[in-house]
Design goal:
With about 725 residues, the protein is of the alpha/beta class. It is about 40% helix and about 10% strand. The chain has 5 domains: about 5-10 and about 290-365, no CATH class; about 20-95 and about 250-255 and about 265-280, Alpha-helical ferredoxin (Fumarate Reductase Iron-sulfur Protein, Chain B, domain 2, Orthogonal Bundle); about 110-230, Rossmann fold (3-Layer(aba) Sandwich), CATH 3.40.50; about 395-620, no CATH class; about 645-735, YaeB-like fold (2-Layer Sandwich), CATH 3.30.2310.
């Protein structure tokens, strides 16, 4: 991987870069940082920052036309910040001291023709680097055109202060001198700053700046440090390069959102208190849109550009020799797309993290255990639980229903009712596709598994006559649009709204629609759900801004359970009203967090009773759904596979069951672990009579503490403790 592979997603981001006002400044003064120092009354630091940027603070504060104010984002909220006033305040209240560089002297000599502010800027920077500089001017003293300004005494004090840092002998002035080419012959380099239409010579050693080079005075002063660098490079290498003005007018349009900022009138800057108050009006403009809208970015406190560099560094790391630093955050991204949606320049951190995941999976340097459970669930959904069927008696169909894997696992009755509705409204011309879109593999970074599933879906769809696929899951629809763009799609909710399906009495008089992340860019899907809600008579309210991610996306539950919990809690708290959702995963998250909510299908086909199914129950639901639909629609028999450990009866406390669900440990995993231990005798017995057994599945090791149930059958066991981890247990050896 190359660095550009990652920075392509953040290259347009301007977080941490100069604000619009600073972009307009010919001196590239960090107005944001300067104002912050002024606000805190750190006048010495403010003056030093000003001097470093503008060379001659008093001259610039008095004469600069302040283009920064034209691009001040405070302007519509009480007026632009008085930057010149703050500059004068820093000059007034600071203890000013010029400082030089501790560098060895150079033997080369430089002439500067013109002792105006532009020439003095270049001369000062060259002399501070200990080049021997001679400044010529036809006038009787320095200052050039500024000598006629009534404020010249103030400017001259500024010149004296800055040149006081130059060591004796490194800057000499010759005034009242009309310079000739012969006068300049002995110098190793010459800088012309002779004003508009002024005298200059051509040749490698001759350089020019200020108005005689077509620049403004402010640009000439600003380019003094740059001119000194170009001339120094020439003196060291003999290769002349042009002195190019700063592109200070670029990126002035980088405005950011200031929602909630209050209007504030300007303050006088003559007193310290007034100047501090004026500086406090500065909005410290910096784009933090993605951070402000992403819980994950707030949690890890890292900036976009740094994240791209770290992701690239991780791509070159080879554990255990080299350490990867961005693992936990890479797998804590929910892939919700909100960062890209709110970014004014379309930076996409989610896509960058997905690239990192695929790279880690390909190189086998990623933590496979973070996604092992979900990949096994996907294999189940695309294997035993899947089916591709045209309507009975047909080989092809016009429509095919693809409910997605999770809806059938959590609410199989809703899938059956939805399929019956489609059959009724299409004259029996709707087929059935039970399976998984493949997003677990995508989120894991396993592109081989994803592509194999995509090929299977395409093959099944083609055998059914290339029908329009009807979706109930926004994530499935988004995945199909991305990887199977040739397939025509329509949402179940649009079909229901178009049919004018009449619901039962609405569950809620007033509710808020919570849109899943995958529907962010699908206005048709979002409007379809709202149309359905209006049909049932529910008064709808909209959440403030776009819906937050519920936390399910990206499968962050294993790598970052605390962040997963926070995602759900904050999303649940966005509105007081109950939620109408159309993602079964959102429904499960909110139900777990105690948020009142209903799936939109429950409003039309009746509410689901009971709690959230367990991991084992979800698998059983999927198989039962397949069995019942095949029997009802095709009169086909389907018998789910059975395992020898299925008959074990386990007594597990409610508290432990909840812990198992949170850590993604299925009852079936415990049954298999105990069955293996009992049949093979591979178990440890504690002094208190409890047995301890383990089972390695793929990259996860499960541990169970159990004992025979009192008064139960030989297949009944009491479970005392359960846990899992990524280490593999091989006898007395732990890897």
């Amino acid at each position: 991987m190359q660095l550009t592979d990652f920075t392509q997603f953040t290259g347009s981001c301007f977080n941490g870069e100069p604000a619009s006002c600073a972009c307009a400044c010919p001196f590239a003064l960090d107005v944001r940082g300067f104002a912050e120092k002024c606000e805190k009354g750190r006048w010495n630091a403010a003056w030093k920052a000003l001097k470093t940027a503008v060379v001659f603070p008093a001259v610039v504060a008095a004469l600069c036309p302040a283009p920064c104010r034209e691009h001040c984002q405070r302007a519509p909220l009480g007026g632009a910040i008085d930057v010149p006033g703050l500059e004068k305040a820093a000059i007034r209240f600071a203890r000013k001291k010029a400082e030089g560089y501790n560098v060895p002297p150079h033997t080369q000599t430089v002439a500067v023709v013109g002792a105006g502010a532009c020439g003095l800027s270049a001369a000062l920077n060259l002399a501070l680097k200990k080049y021997v500089v001679t400044v010529f001017d036809k006038l009787p003293g320095w200052g050039g055109s500024l000598r006629d300004d009534p404020r010249f005494p103030e400017f001259e004090e500024d010149f004296k202060l800055q040149f006081s840092a130059v060591k004796e002998g490194f800057c000499n002035f010759i005034f009242d001198k009309a310079v000739t080419e012969a006068d300049l012959a002995s110098f190793d380099a010459v800088y012309f700053a002779t004003g508009e239409g002024g005298f200059r010579l051509e040749g490698d050693k001759y350089f020019a700046g200020g108005p005689c080079a077509g620049w403004t005075m402010m640009e000439g002063i600003a380019m003094g440090p740059e001119a000194s660098k170009v001339m120094e490079a020439y003196l060291m290498t003999g290769r002349p390069e042009p002195i190019l003005p700063h592109e200070h007018a670029a990126h002035c349009d980088r405005y950011v959102s200031h929602d909630g900022a209050e209007s504030a009138p300007p303050c006088e800057t003559e007193t310290e208190e007034g100047a501090q108050a004026e500086a406090a009006r500065c909005l410290k403009c910096d784009c933090t849109e993605c951070i402000d809208h992403c819980i994950m970015l707030q949690h890890f406190r890292k900036k976009p550009h740094g994240l791209a560099r770290e992701a690239y560094a991780d791509s070159a790391a080879a554990p255990p020799i080299a350490t990867q630093s961005l693992v936990r955050q890479t797998y804590s991204c929910t892939n919700c797309g909100r960062c890209n949606a709110v970014c004014p320049t379309n930076a996409n951190l989610g896509a960058m993290f997905m690239l990192s995941r695929t790279d880690r999976f390909r190189r086998n340097t990623g933590p496979r255990a973070f996604h092992d459970f979900w990949l096994r669930e996907m294999d189940f959904s695309t294997g035993e639980a899947s089916v591709f069927l045209a309507p009975k008696g047909k080989e092809t169909c016009s429509y095919v229903f693809f409910p997605g894997c999770r809806l059938g696992m959590s609410a199989p009755r809703l899938v059956k009712e939805a399929y019956r509705f489609l059959q009724d409204t299409t004259g029996g011309d709707t087929g059935l596709m039970l399976g998984c879109c493949g997003v677990p593999a995508l989120w894991a970074g396993d592109l081989d598994r994803l592509n194999a599933n995509i090929a299977k879906l395409r093959e099944g769809w083609e055998k059914l006559g290339r029908p329009t696929v009807v979706f109930a899951c926004a994530t499935c629809e988004r995945t199909f649009r991305q990887y199977l763009p040739e397939i025509p799609l329509v949402s179940l909710y649009r079909k229901m709204a178009e049919a004018g399906l009449q619901p039962a009495k609405p569950s809620y008089d007033k509710a808020a629609v919570f849109d899943p992340c995958a529907a962010r860019e699908d206005s048709e899907l979002r409007s379809s759900v709202r149309d359905l809600a209006k049909l049932e008579g529910t008064e709808l309210t909209e959440l403030p801004g776009e819906s937050r991610c519920c936390g399910f996306g990206g499968h962050i539950k294993v790598p970052n359970p605390e962040l997963f919990r926070r995602f759900g809690e904050e999303a649940a708290a966005e509105a007081e009203e109950p939620y109408l959702v159309y993602c079964i995963n959102c429904r499960e998250v909110f139900k777990t967090r105690g948020k009142e909510c209903r799936h939109i299908l429950e409003e039309y086909f009746g509410p689901e009773t009971g709690g959230i199914p367990s991991i084992l129950e979800k698998r059983q639901n999927a198989l039962t759904l397949k069995k019942e639909l095949m029997k009802e629609g095709w009169d086909l028999d389907f018998t789910p596979s059975a395992n020898p450990w299925d008959a074990l009866e386990l007594d597990i406390s409610a508290e432990l069951r909840q812990k198992m669900e949170e850590t993604l440990v299925s009852i079936s995993d415990l049954q298999e672990t105990i069955w293996n231990a009992e049949t093979a005798g591979d178990k440890l017995q504690r002094q208190d009579g409890w047995f301890l057994a383990s089972l390695v599945k793929s990259v996860i090791t499960y541990w169970v503490q159990y004992r025979p149930a009192e008064g139960g059958s030989e297949n009944a066991f009491e479970v005392g403790a359960v846990y899992s981890h990524r280490m593999k247990w091989r006898g007395a050896e732990i890897q």
